[in-house]
Amino acid sequence: MSVTPEPEIGLIMPTAEQERALRALPDVTTVRLDSRSFRRSLLLVMVFLVGLKFALYVYEALGSFLFLLLLAWLLSIAMEPAVAWFANRGMRRGLATGIVGLILIVATAAFIAVFGSLFVTQVSELIKGLPGYVEQTVTWVNSTFHTTLNSGSIMDNLQITPAKVAEWASSVAGGVFGFVGTIFGALFDGLTVFVFAFYFSADGPRLRRAIGSWLPEQSQKVFVTVWDIAVTKTGGFVVSKVVLAALSAFFHCSFFYVINVPYWLPMGIFAGVVSQFIPTIGTYIGVAIPALFAAFDKPINVVWIIIFATVYQQIESYVFTPRVSRATMDIHPAIALGSVFVGFAFFGPIGAIIGIPLAAAVIAVIETYGNRHELVPELQVRTKGEKPPKPGDALAGDVTAVVPAGRPLGHVAEQALEAAERAEDVAESTP
């Protein structure tokens, strides 16, 4: 009598496929953090935090000086075209930089001597008159749109209180000590910027070689490319915008003076600078603010300001800009506008002016060393309603393949490309 052995309970033998799958799994090793590794990691974290704290302290202590160095660097590359013109005619760079700097100082001093007192007086009167203008604006809005706005609460929210207005006015044209302190502070900052700009421009080639000597050969090529981009694009932009802003400010000031716009000098300078250094909306802001002040004095002047701004914009676009702008900057208007707000947040009004050239230099460097890839057919097609492509635009798409807007690109791209290829074949076969 044979006895069949009973199978062991709970023991399941894996199949051959399961064994192969188990052998294919990677080995999992338990990672342990011993006391030495933990102490090393903790020390690295502490060193990083201390270094970050020290860097923030240095930036807070030297932030204003570093900003002056940035302005000096921008001024030096703005002077570079004129300095290069003198240097190419046999003049030494130091003397050429001195002549260009002297011209800038004489022009600034002449402007201050002729219009400085008038400018300060009008700005002070403008600040003192702000509460009245706000109250008149609120009264007009309430009577026109039947609202119940409170001018007092609006001025409190805007911090246009009598004490604040008096503080602003005294800081602009107040007591002797405040005025003298402001003058000496501005002169010291201007002298710092000018001295460093002089050295950056006069010793530019030597400075370029000194920085390059600390870099390896491959990094030196990158440094040269970045330097060329900064000088050509950023310098060309700064020069062209400064010239265009000076022309715009001159013509706006002259027109505002003729039609007797209140505070015509600061308003004209504001319109000229804002229209050039704030993209897209700068032109409208530069006209809207003077028109708002003119509306309370002579409403008809608003019409004349709009007509003048429209005519001048056409003259500037077709006459001044092509002759002044020798270097164009490839920067999207949205990025330019964003750089204005970022620059203003970091450095105030001057930061808003220098934000665009800095952003353009960064974008130019990224485009120089960034890697672009071939677009798939779905991304090569153009949708209806796009603006006409500019010559040389790498992102313009295929102008022969246009699909309806709002459709999934994957459904219509292949058909559009096939139609474009058939059209090309027909064009080539046609005698």
Can you walk me through this structure?
The chain is an all-alpha fold and 431 residues long. It has 3 domains: 171 residues, no CATH class; 157 residues; 38 residues, no CATH class. The chain has 16 helices and 2 strands. It has a two-stranded parallel sheet with strand order 1-2. The longest helix has 53 residues. It is extended and about 90 Å long. About 1% of the residues have low confidence.
Question: How much is the radius of gyration in Å?
Answer: 33 Å
Poorly predicted runs are 175-179
Mean pLDDT: 77
End-to-end C-alpha gap: 102 Å
- What's the total helix number? 16
Beta-strand segment tally: 2
Order of helices and strands: HHHHHHHHHHHHHHHEEH
Mass-distribution shape? extended
How many structural units, i.e. domains? 3
Proportion of residues in helical segments: over 70%
Largest sheet: 2 strands, parallel
Helix and strand content put the structural class at mainly alpha
Give the DSSP E fraction (strand runs of 2 or more residues).
under 5%
Strand order within the widest beta sheet: 1-2
Q: What is the fold's blueprint, element by element?
A:
Elements: H1 16-24, H2 35-87, H3 93-128, H4 130-145, H5 151-157, H6 162-173, H7 176-202, H8 204-212, H9 217-258, H10 264-277, H11 282-297, H12 300-324, H13 333-347, H14 349-369, H15 377-380, E1 381-383, E2 398-403, H16 409-429
Parallel strand pairs: 1-2
